[in-house]
Amino acid sequence: MDKLLIRGGRRLVGEVRISGAKNAALPELCAALLTDEPVVLHNVPRLQDVATMLKLVRNMGVTAERDDNGTVRLDAADLTNPEAPYELVKTMRASVLALGPLVARFGHARVSLPGGCAIGSRPVDQHIKGLTAMGAEIRVEHGYMVAGLQPGLKRLRGARITTDMVTVTGTENFLMAAALAEGETILENAAQEPEIPDLAEMLIKMGAKIEGHGTSRIRIQGVERLHGCEHTVVADRIEAGTFLCAVAAAGGSVLLLGARAEHLDAVTDKLRDAGATVAEVPGGLRIEAAGRLKAQSFRTTEYPGFPTDMQAQFMALNVIAEGTATVAETIFENRFMHVNELLRLGARIQTDGKVAVIEGVPQLSGATVMATDLRASASLVIAGLVAEGETLVDRIYHLDRGYDRMEAKLRALGADIERVPGARA
Ligand code: EPZ
Known about the structure:
By secondary structure, the chain is α/β, with parallel strands linked by helices. Helix content is 32%, strand content 25%. The strands form six sheets. The chain has a four-stranded mixed beta sheet, covered by helices on one side. The chain has a four-stranded mixed beta sheet with strand order 2-15-17-16. It has a four-stranded mixed beta sheet with strand order 4-5-3-14, with helices on one face. Helix 4 packs parallel to helix 6 and helix 8 runs parallel beside helix 10. The longest helix is centred in the middle third of the chain and has 14 residues. The chain is elongated. The N and C termini lie close together (6 Å). The relative contact order is 0.16. The model has no long low-confidence stretch (mean pLDDT 96). The structure holds ligand EPZ. The site of ligand EPZ has 23 residues, from helix 1, helix 5, helix 6 and helix 12.
């Protein structure tokens, strides 16, 4: 397994281009399943999860070609196998996003249950609840969701859906299914993360009739069929937030090209309170930071609140900030896996259930640490950038799932970081 070797203490200076958003590209690749016409997606990030999703749709019979400029061309005209097999789904739970489109277009699908992951059990009961309300009949057999239509139905029909909690991929599954359902669908407590409006805009280009996307109430009028389209994936606000935290922690001055300031208010507000200068400039966001920042308490909530996907990265900043901060993780039940690894670097953190108390220390000392999940990996990289001496981050396949060439981008900003190829796993 590959490792990242980081020698801490360098400031970060220069500019970095933010890639397309992983959490927009994944549903948008699935949206291509809704039509028998070609779909072209630009600004698709180079990630392991995207490679997995391409393998998944090709396994269904979809042609999917990616060029070197981040453009993916898909054609689902000859989709003959509406299935998502366990061996692919177990490595990427976002495969559940194939369920809605397949049932909407073909009336049946067989998608493996994703199983849990490091940050929580990650059930998909709300996906099943919403699609059932739309006329799907989903039973669980041998670890698979086997979906068909309820007796008498030729296609999904519109419904009013209120999920037990806000669910991002649940909202995306319902959006895609409702686009081809008969009649009107209302999503009452829809997710508002920016990846949702981005997906909705793509579906509208395909002929879908959607309004209210980006708010908690979305209305969709189903249509008979959807046509192909060309769409550019929105910039990745979590990659941008990760780089903002890295510069805030290490010090420096960096321009984040393509970052959308309006998607990051909760994070940039906290960074300004901590003492960094963050400004929206033509082409993106510029951050400048020097010296020891002030620790910031926060609690993760659904968008537009502080994103759970930024919790680990900001904690790495709090670890070396001045003062004590309290961090509450309200979305996932086990998203403090980075804490034990940060302790190995000399951090002072106490956790009690969903709350962590971080007492800032003036200096970390490098050590070997282990990545456990995607954002925890990013947190350890940030800590390694500021730790004295060498930090070796192991199991960085977690990082490769969701960050597009992170070490190359950090090295271009002046970080002393290199990939150490591991023994073939
Ligand atoms: C999406 O996951 C993101 N993944 C996650 O990003 C992100 O952390 C999460 O939304 C929250 O913002 C993608 O978009 C591919 P949820 P998702 O459904 O949709 C519970 C990353 O690091 N729930 O919004 O799976 C769930 O357990 C990843 O890029 C149910 O109980 O998250 C959680 O507690 C990690 N039943 C809460 O709701 C369901 O059927 C929110 O989950 C669905 C969700």
